[in-house]
Design brief:
It is a single chain. The protein has 556 residues and is an alpha+beta fold. The protein has helices spanning 7-13, 19-24, 35-47, 56-62, 68-76, 79-85, 92-101, 115-119, 127-147, 155-187, 196-207, 210-218, 221-256, 300-314, 346-365, 410-413, 492-508, 510-514, 535-545; strands spanning 265-276, 279-286, 291-295, 326-328, 333-336, 376-379, 382-385, 425-426, 435-436, 446-447, 452-456, 464-468, 471-472, 480-481, 484-485. A hairpin with a 4-residue loop joins strand 4 and strand 5 (333-336). Helix 9 (127-147) runs antiparallel to helix 10. It starts with 6 loop residues before the first helix and ends in an 11-residue tail after the last helix. The mean pLDDT is 91.
């Protein structure tokens, strides 16, 4: 098995240390060997938007306590000098060394022999890390089940359900890099095989040799570090989920399944919403038929919102909202799974939209935003909000501004449009009308007006990333009647009625609302999410940070 030896060799891997980390390390950084290259690199960075000529570059540096000369020294520092300055081994490097030096006791479950499985072929690059993580996960899950009689899962099954979450966490950064390496190998005539599929398989087969994989990772130390930390984060999140499931099982049975019981875990879906702090929202399915949504964060804000819905009903507000059953455990929580369902009559459709008007009033009261179509489920005559993180939301123009500053566009921000529930177009320009992502308006499939990064030639030596059109799938936010969609414009009166009725109640009861023991007080200590930029911007930044040109040196 390959080793990771020596100080000079260690310097290669230490290029995965970022600007802040290198700036904090004590020692001499003046042993520059390529000062001219460092100056060219710095000049290129400073010429890029948004740093050109506005002082932002100096602000960025000042956060780390560095000046421009300090950065130049770091840019010019050779690998061996960096290794000499680093006394303590970074925590991820021994994990990388162990995984590639000693085979793990267990093997990570291989993907199915399908087209989807071929898309995962490049993960052979980091398979020793995945094997090591899998071995540790199995040991932990088996111990958890052995120490808790009646644990609602089978250890091997539970670990297997968690495995796809790691694959897809690693897939994008590994594939972006290995597509480049595949194409380089093809240009250099290093691919054996008589057709594109055979040549792809031969390339992947070479990656199964740990020495070859490690040599490739040596070119991309940032990717190596990311892979180690992704496995560690997946391990921690998986253990955390199953530990919470064991600890909460009786409370879950009492609240959600008092008759049939909880049953055993048979399915996990991790594709629900954005991840936070390395944790994903999960849909958990049990063999009793019960489906729950696990949220790896406090759901106090959602609990307070359900209580507010109950408060409106107790004061006679028709037609009444559906309240979700949930279990808030402080640092995590469980919520009943809501499935989309059709309306049975036109009266139900009207009540659906009256409730939407009521939601508009309540969400406006609570300073909500981000109520797009994915955060709303049409469950018969009940619209159900399934993600309420972004309540009491400050606006980006206000963050960091002195009191009394009037942000540009404040009248629009103070309107109902800020919520994101009302129809509206985004990403439009002179060429395209844009698309509607709102909770009320988004309907059916919609083609994104901007090209999206995607793969072509999957499972062949022509595999590559291109930018092209993408269609968003149909949504579950709009009601249906007799299997057909209904026209939103036919129910504007119902929305207005629900809005006006709820606003009158809130105004009439405003003192009760704001009282120390009133329904708003429950939100006081609830954690909320601040979205300073559209989440699409964060997705773009993350995606582009995985370009292989940025994975050879963390300073990039």
């Amino acid at each position: 098995m390959p080793e990771i030896p020596g100080t000079v060799e260690r310097g290669t891997w230490l290029k995965a240390l970022d600007l802040e980390e290198r700036g904090r390390i004590q020692g001499d950084t003046t042993a520059a060997r390529d000062a001219e290259r460092a100056r060219r690199r710095l000049a290129r960075w400073k010429a890029q938007e948004p740093f050109a000529g506005n002082g932002l570059f100096a602000q960025r540096l000042s956060r780390t306590g560095l000046g421009e000369e300090d950065l130049l020294a770091l840019l010019a520092e050779p690998e061996d000098a960096l290794a000499e300055r680093v006394d303590a081994q970074p925590s991820w490097l021994p994990i990388l060394q162990e995984a590639f030096s000693h085979p793990a006791a267990e093997r990570f479950p291989p993907p199915a022999e399908t087209a989807e499985g071929r898309r995962l072929g490049f993960l052979q690059l980091v398979l020793p890390l995945m094997d090591a993580g899998w071995t540790r996960l199995l040991a932990d899950v088996r111990a958890l089940a052995a120490n808790h009689s009646g644990a609602p899962f089978d250890p091997e099954t539970a670990a297997g359900l968690l495995s796809p979450l790691l694959r897809y966490r690693l897939l994008l950064p590994v594939n972006r890099t290995m597509v480049l390496e595949l194409n380089l190998a093809g240009e250099e005539g290093r691919l054996a095989g008589k057709d594109p599929e055979e040549r792809f398989d031969a390339f992947v087969q070479e990656l199964r040799d740990p020495a070859t994989a490690l040599e490739t990772l040596r070119l991309y130390p940032v990717l190596a570090r990311y892979a180690v930390e992704a496995v560690e984060s997946w391990l921690e999140a998986g253990r955390e989920f199953l530990t919470h499931l064991v600890a909460d099982r009786e409370a879950l049975r009492t609240l959600f399944a008092p008759d049939a019981g909880l049953g055993r875990l048979i399915e996990l879906d991790g594709g629900l919403g954005d991840s936070h702090r390395g944790r994903s929202v999960l849909k958990a399915v049990f063999d009793s038929g019960l489906k729950l949504v696990y949220k790896p964060r406090s759901i106090a804000v959602e609990a307070a919102f359900q209580d507010l819905l109950g408060w409106t009903e107790a004061r006679g507000l028709p037609p009444g909202f559906r309240r979700l059953r949930l279990l808030d455990r402080g640092d995590h929580g469980w919520v009943e799974f809501v499935a989309a369902a059709p309306c049975a009559s036109a009266d139900e459709v009207r009540r659906f939209y009256e409730r939407q008007g009521g939601y508009l009033a309540l969400l406006y009261l609570l300073g909500a935003t981000d109520m797009h179509y994915e955060n709303l489920i049409a469950a018969g005559e009940h619209p159900v909000m399934v993600d309420l993180e972004a309540l009491f939301h400050p606006w980006g123009e206000e963050v960091g501004q002195p009191p009394g500053t009037e942000p540009v566009g404040r009248p629009l921000q103070d309107s109902l449009l800020r919520i994101g529930l009302l129809p509206g177009r985004v990403w439009g320009d002179a060429e395209t009308p844009g698309i509607d992502l709102s909770g009320l308006g988004a309907a059916g499939e919609q083609r994104l007006p901007k090209p999206v990064l995607k793969m072509e030639g999957i499972g062949t030596d022509r595999m590559r990333f291109v930018r092209g059109p993408m269609t968003l799938p149909g949504s579950r936010n709009r009601p249906t009647l007799n299997g057909a969609a209904v026209a939103l414009t036919d129910y504007t009166e119902a929305i207005a009625d629900g809005l006006a009725r709820t606003l009158r109640l809130l105004v009439a009861r405003r003192e009760e609302l704001a009282a120390p023991d009133g329904p708003l007080a429950a939100f006081a200590d609830a954690e909320v999410r601040v979205i300073l930029r559209p989440t699409s911007a964060y997705t773009l930044l993350l995606t582009e940070s995985f370009h292989p040109f940025f994975l050879g040196d963390a300073l990039d």
